[in-house]
Amino acid sequence: MSGVGRNDDTQKRTQKLRPYSVLEMIRLIGHWSCATSLYLVRCEIRLQMMRLFLPVVFTAVLFTFAADASADVFNMTAGQSSISLAAIGDVGNTSDNGVGAVNYQYSIDKYDVTTAQYTQFLNAVAKTDTYGLYHARMGSGNANVGIVQSGGPGTFAYSVVPGLENLPVSYVTWGDAARFVNWVQNGQPTGLEGNGTTETGAYTLSGANTDAALMAVNRNPGARYFIPTVDEWYKAAFYKGNGLSSGYWAYATQSDTTPSNVLSAIGTNNANYDGTLTPDYFTNVGAFASSPSHYGTFDQCGDIVQWTEQSLSGTARGLRGNSFASPAFQLSSGSVGSGFAPTDSERVGFRIGAIVPEPTTFLLAGMGLLGLMTRSRRKS
Questions:
Q1: 186 near 192, Cβ under 8 Å?
Q2: What percent of the chain has pLDDT over 90?
Q3: pTM of the prediction?
């Protein structure tokens, strides 16, 4: 039996060594050609996808790195507060006596725009300062927010007094706030005030600086960043969340009890008001770290009054929130204010709203898709 086994094995090896016939060679070449063609097609598809997609990824990467070298209010220097968007859900919530109902998803900055962020803006666009984005009282007013201007027209430069970087910016008009938003909408470019920097974007301003001209300005369709409407601002501050008929808090600290004005990062119902808290009047944005609204916003109750898009009788813009000087009875949700759009005040600042993911979301999504493409290629 062993001899027969060895003979059979020899025959098998002989068969394996037998040259392919011409027909078999043709078949093999055909199979190889088809497999190669399919592989090349797959490679070409991947190549075309990478050609289409990589510019997006590289643009996002370049934007991220460029932000470190130039203005980027979403990624400020270490120790300085950045714009950080809080998502406002509960789409279709009920109103509070006609205010606060919003039937779409949006975001709002957790904090007021700071002096350091506004200084980034000024250095990017206000070397000539055609539309008066800088006001002298920003550096020398009663409520000193510490923005100092140097140089002359065409060479203006701006800096923040050390230690004041995270104060809310004040002495800003409604027009200043709209121009800041346009600049963010346009990608925070560097250039003179004009189209593509401050005059177009979320709002078409075209040099508007009078009350009549600024009152005629409306949010453009498709705006990704904006000054909040009174409903957007009010909901973010007072709505209790976790449902569409949850009701509203009296104060933007998730409380129906008047907040304490003791500066505390651990107090759960604290705010800056009554004019006695600090020598500089203002507190750093987010200083009351344990007193947020339901959605995680800070300082919508005290510290500084904030502009909204609201038009009141066609002659003034709405103001919400309260300032460091407000008495206790003005802190509640029922407090309403207004101001002429070209007017600045030591007590008035702003925060921005948005209908857009934060910039890093695009980069992460892009890198994730590129990773999936690479993984697919390895499997093939």
A1: no
A2: 69
A3: 0.78
